[in-house]
Design brief:
The structure holds three protein chains of three kinds.
Chain A: E1 4-12, E2 21-28, E3 33-37, H1 44-50, E4 60-67, E5 70-71, H2 77-83, E6 84-87, H3 100-110, H4 115-128, H5 144-156, E7 162-166, H6 174-191, E8 194-198, H7 205-208, E9 211-216, E10 219-224, H8 226-232, H9 244-251, H10 262-272, E11 290-300, E12 307-317, E13 321-325, H11 332-339, E14 347-351, E15 357-360, H12 373-378, H13 384-391, H14 406-418, E16 424-428, H15 436-451, E17 455-460, H16 463-469, E18 472-477, E19 480-486, H17 487-493, H18 500-505, H19 515-523, H20 526-533
Helix pairs in contact in A: 3-4, 3-5, 5-6, 9-10, 9-19, 13-14
Chain B: H1 2-16, E1 20-22, H2 23-28, E2 36-43, H3 45-49, E3 59-68, H4 74-85, E4 89-94, E5 97-103, E6 106-107, E7 116-121, E8 124-125, E9 140-146
Parallel strand pairs in B: 2-9
Antiparallel strand pairs in B: 2-3, 4-5, 5-6, 7-8, 7-9
Chain C: H1 9-24, H2 29-45, H3 53-73, E1 80-84, E2 87-90, H4 91-117, H5 120-130, H6 132-162, H7 168-196, H8 214-235, E3 241-242, E4 248-249, H9 254-287
Antiparallel strand pairs in C: 1-2, 3-4
Helix pairs in contact in C: 1-4, 1-8, 2-4, 2-9, 3-4, 5-6, 6-7, 8-9
The chains are: A alpha/beta, B alpha+beta, C mainly alpha.
């Protein structure tokens, strides 16, 4: 019997005229791993929430959802609470209690289990998820990835049959995101747990999923296996969100079986293309005028604490778009705070040469204090209309900042910072939580700002974004910058810490680091491909 | 270090406004006495009669003549009498609102919640503060301890 | 190594209840001294106490301040030392002030030792066992407050940047309102997350890691006996001291001695226990 059977489901929010979901039909079998993709605001979250009785939004519903053959509205509350697990986007605000163990026990306490039963289940799941070391810690002391794992574990402690995840990794760094997805895959393999997951970050998920459901403006347009769905999406907007190998495959208009992983992508390239001597031309013109010069900075947060920045030494030059990469906790954000003069290094000197530095924090929500964007902008400067036009967000002027989507908020944040007329813009994780469309839009905006003379310095985990848009990249490790180069050489020289495309084309193509690079190099060598096929 | 320094300075300023005198100096100091003669007595028989009392003598000061100046009040008379006879006296407040808490180690509330010191002038009780009542030449001031808000010493409430 | 902290919360709660009760219902410097020495030794034995001789200077200043403040306001007492502005300063009031200072410092150190021993989980256990919802509320607040402070600091740093020239108070206020709004937003997610995990369906049960062992029982009995003996001395007034008008110590009697000694042992119990366990550990290591 199907776990979920969705029949002709439509849904309209009370204050809206257009439906949020329109005649959705979907079957989910036990043990399925279903990936739900689509642009922000296409109805993914609404659909997922319809599957969990407690979270179903208010509004006009037609059609039916069956859970194990029963109408979802009529199933027992305890069954719904324990058998259907739900995990949301923000790792922080889902955590209820102050200790890891009490968080794990939270759901079981709600269902009235006694102490012995809870102890058994909690210890079982803490071991399975590798949370034993964290067991007695404060939840506040965990990293984002650990928090999300804790959320997963505390849902899993209730022993659900199906787990629904709404963009669970969008707030995590890539390493934590991969670990989280692997854990879900393991649950799916080990326990036969049914998984329904909506996500923007598809690199790993696409290869794991059994079925992919594609949504577009309230409708379910495709529902098929990953391999079959890639060719269908060839000219679709959403194809940009696909894994690098699939995008290369699509862009080269290949037929046959689509590669999804790096390994398959390499095989695909090796099979169809010979080694190519041609190189991507990189024009890297760097001005010699520094706008930020950091000289031997040392920083630590407390007297006895460890050094976060050690002898950190680097320059940002006028008119460049610099991306500083590095894993979580390597001191990237600390460095930004130093440059924006929020904190002061205990040794060393930071010179901004009198340039005004604008800083956009990781959470742009922190910038806004008023009830609408317009009021907020007016606090600083009245010349916001031009910028809004450039960013294409005039229609949001009267909206409350908290009603904006992630991408819109990011753009509004940049506008607010730009209103202070800075010469240098500092960005902290600008792509966090954005879908691929918003990312592309943001990238284009950054490029055009950069072209008009603004120096941009960003700190990011997102290697793909850095490879696509930055002029220069640096890697921060153990408190100082260990590698620094123009972005193409940077990613070509790195073996592990590099883009997926670079890993796919390593030793096959000379210096391709983005999907476009790979496609360009391959297309210019079509002849060799023909030779190869002979 | 800074904090300790501030503390020392504050204390110095605080104490510099105070006149410190030894016990002998205090009792021996003679001020210009006035020409109004007032007789004063202090009595706490009620406290002696109070259950479990440790006191055996109700007469703290029996009939004493003090000389005070023109504007002297009942309180001034008490203070002068206590000084002459070396009787302990404790009060709080200053200016027009002085409240006598204890005389000869006998304090308010020592004999129940309704106990304390009251005064009468020429055998009449007044409800104004002792530092607001100006005495006349030849007046007789009595300070009496009550255990029952004056009921037990004849100061009936509302009279 | 086993420490005093590892006792069951109920045992520990009783210990501190006994200590605070005795400190509250007596005014006897001998009790205060024993309590102070016991708490001081225990605090200095634990790293969390952050004990240093430098910090003791602060406590000493506090003690001196309280000691000299009392005679300034209380003029009771038969032995006059000198007069300030016609007000007598008496020996009795000074001694009383010193006792008061000793009591306050003893209670402060008791709280210090209480803080070391009582982690949040123990507190939550004490409340949560009887009232699971109250336990949950405490736990949620302990989760919320640090989060709130952290996001306030983030927002405040931003607001300072945008409101240069504006007053500090104004940026504080606007940051505060931003953080409140964000917390309200997040609480929607929180309530969803709670609902999704079945909150409110049944009366909650309460999960904890504590077990009341025989060991706890033994120590509980020892503590109770010591407490009763020391309380007996207070109830029967054999340890009574009066300060006014003369300092008057009750005559020598055996009950007072027993009470004093019991309370000294009770005060030193956490320290002695920890030292005992430390030696035991050392000894067992040397045997291995």
């Amino acid at each position: 019997m199907e776990i979920f059977n969705i029949k002709n489901l439509s849904f309209t929010y009370p204050d809206s005229e257009t439906p949020a979901l329109e005649s959705i039909n979907l079957n989910v079998n036990p043990g399925d791993f279903i990936l739900l993709i689509g642009e922000s605001g296409c109805g993914k979250t609404t659909l997922l929430r319809m599957l969990k009785k407690e979270l179903t939004p208010y509004g006009k519903t037609s059609g039916e959802i069956f859970y194990k053959g029963k109408k979802i509205k009529e199933i027992n509350q305890y069954i719904s609470a324990s058998e259907i697990g739900f995990i949301m986007q923000d790792p922080d605000s889902q955590i209820v209690t102050d200790k890891v163990y009490s968080e794990l026990a939270f759901g079981l306490e709600n269902l009235g289990y006694n102490n012995t039963e809870i102890r058994l289940k909690v210890s079982e799941f803490a071991s399975y998820f590798g949370l034993s070391k964290l067991f007695n810690k404060d939840t506040n002391s965990l990293s984002g990835g650990e928090k999300q794992l804790l959320n997963l574990a505390s849902v899993m402690a209730m022993n659900p049959d199906v787990i629904i995840l709404d963009e669970p990794t969008s707030q995590l760094d890539p390493i934590a995101a991969t670990e989280f997805i692997n854990t879900i895959k393991r649950l799916n393999n080990d326990l036969g747990l049914t998984v329904i997951i909506a996500e923007h970050h598809l690199q790993e998920l696409f290869a794991i999923a059994d079925k992919v459901a594609v949504m577009e403006s309230s409708k379910l347009i495709y529902f098929d296996t990953p391999k079959d769905i890639v060719p269908k999406l060839r000219n679709h907007k959403i194809s940009k969100a696909l894994p690098a190998s699939a995008r290369i495959f699509n862009s080269l208009s290949e037929s046959g079986e689509c590669p999804l992983t790096v390994r398959d992508g390499r095989k695909f390239l090796q099979k169809n293309y010979n080694d190519i001597d041609e190189k991507i031309k990189v024009d890297c013109k760097v001005s010699i005028e520094s706008v930020i010069a950091c000289k031997d900075i040392w920083f630590r947060y407390s007297k006895e604490g460890a050094d976060v920045l050690k002898n950190c030494d680097f320059n940002v030059y006028k008119g460049e778009l610099y991306a500083l990469l590095g894993e979580n906790g390597c001191g990237k954000s600390t460095l930004l705070k130093c440059i924006s003069k929020n904190i002061k290094p205990y040794r060393g000197k930071i010179d901004t040469f009198g340039n005004k530095v604008g800083f956009l924090p990781q959470n742009p929500k922190n910038l806004f204090v008023k009830d609408s964007l317009e009021e907020d902008f007016k606090l600083i400067n009245y010349s916001y209309l031009e910028l809004l036009k450039m960013f294409n967000i005039e229609h949001l002027l009267n909206k409350h900042p908290y009603d904006l989507s992630g991408g819109e908020l990011q753009k509004a944040g940049i506008v607010k910072v730009l209103l202070t007329n800075p010469e240098v813009l500092l960005l902290d994780e600008p792509t966090k939580g954005l879908d691929s469309f918003s990312k592309e839009e943001l990238g284009k905006i950054l490029l055009s700002l950069n072209k008009s003379g603004l120096t941009i310095f960003m700190v990011t985990h997102d290697v793909e974004f850095a490879a696509e848009y930055a002029n220069r990249c640096g890697l921060l490790f153990d408190g100082n910058i260990t590698a620094e180069n123009d972005s193409n050489s940077f990613f070509t020289n790195n073996n592990f810490y590099t883009t997926t495309s670079a890993r796919i084309s390593r030793n096959i193509l000379k210096n391709a680091v983005t999907v476009n690079d790979v496609v360009t190099l391959c297309k210019s060598n079509e002849l060799k491909k023909v030779n190869n096929n002979d | 270090m800074k904090k300790i320094l501030t503390l020392i300075i504050t204390l110095t300023v605080f104490f510099s406004g105070c006149a410190i005198s030894s016990v002998e100096d205090y009792y021996n100091s003679t001020e210009a006495k006035g020409d109004k003669a007032v007789s004063i007595s202090i009595n706490c028989q009620t406290a002696v009669d109070y259950p479990n009392s440790k006191r055996d003598n109700g007469k703290i000061l029996g009939g004493c003549q003090v000389y005070v100046d023109e504007n002297a009040t009942v309180f001034d008379v008490l203070k002068e009498a206590c000084k002459i006879n070396k009787i302990q006296m404790d009060y709080e407040g200053s200016g027009n609102s002085v409240y006598v808490k204890g005389i000869d180690y006998l304090y308010e509330f020592d004999c129940g919640d309704l106990s304390g010191w009251q005064y009468s002038v020429n055998d009449k009780f007044y409800s104004v503060g002792s530092n607001s009542f100006i005495v006349q030449d030849g007046d007789t001031v009595r300070w009496i301890y009550t255990c029952d808000l004056g009921e037990d010493i004849g100061n009936h409430f509302g009279d | 190594m086993n420490t005093f902290k590892n006792f069951h919360p109920v045992t520990l709660a009783c210990y501190y209840l006994f200590m605070f009760l005795i400190s509250m219902f007596t005014f006897n410097p001998v009790y205060f001294c024993s309590g102070f020495i016991g708490a001081l030794l225990f605090v200095s034995l634990n790293k969390e106490g952050k004990f240093s001789f430098k910090s003791m200077i602060g406590y000493f200043i506090l003690f001196v301040l309280i000691s000299i403040t009392n005679p300034l306001f209380s003029h009771n007492g038969a032995t006059s030392l000198f007069f300030i502005n016609d007000n007598r300063i008496t020996l009795e009031a000074l001694v009383f002030g010193m006792c008061l200072g000793l009591m306050i410092i003893e209670v402060l150190f008791l709280f210090k030792s209480f803080n070391i021993v009582f982690s949040s989980e123990k507190l939550i256990y004490l409340f949560g066992k009887r009232f699971p919802k109250l336990g949950l509320v405490i736990s949620m607040s302990l989760n919320f407050v640090p989060k709130f402070v952290k996001s306030f600091n983030d927002v405040y740093a931003q607001q300072r940047y945008f409101s240069r020239g504006q007053g500090r108070v104004r940026s504080y206020l606007s940051s505060f309102s931003v953080v409140i709004t964000q917390s309200l937003e997040n609480s929607i997610t929180l309530s969803d997350s709670m609902k999704a995990r079945g909150y409110g369906l049944k009366p909650r049960s309460f999960y904890n890691n504590f077990k009341f062992s025989l060991y706890d029982g033994c120590y509980f009995i020892i503590m109770s006996v010591l407490f009763i003996l020391s309380a007996l001395g207070i109830l029967l007034k054999s340890t009574e001291i009066t300060f006014y008008p003369y300092i008057c110590i009750s005559d020598f009697n055996y009950l007072a001695v027993i009470s004093y000694i019991s309370f000294l042992i009770l005060s030193l119990l956490p320290f002695l226990f920890q030292v005992k366990e430390g030696l035991k550990w050392k000894y067992s290591i040397s045997k291995i």
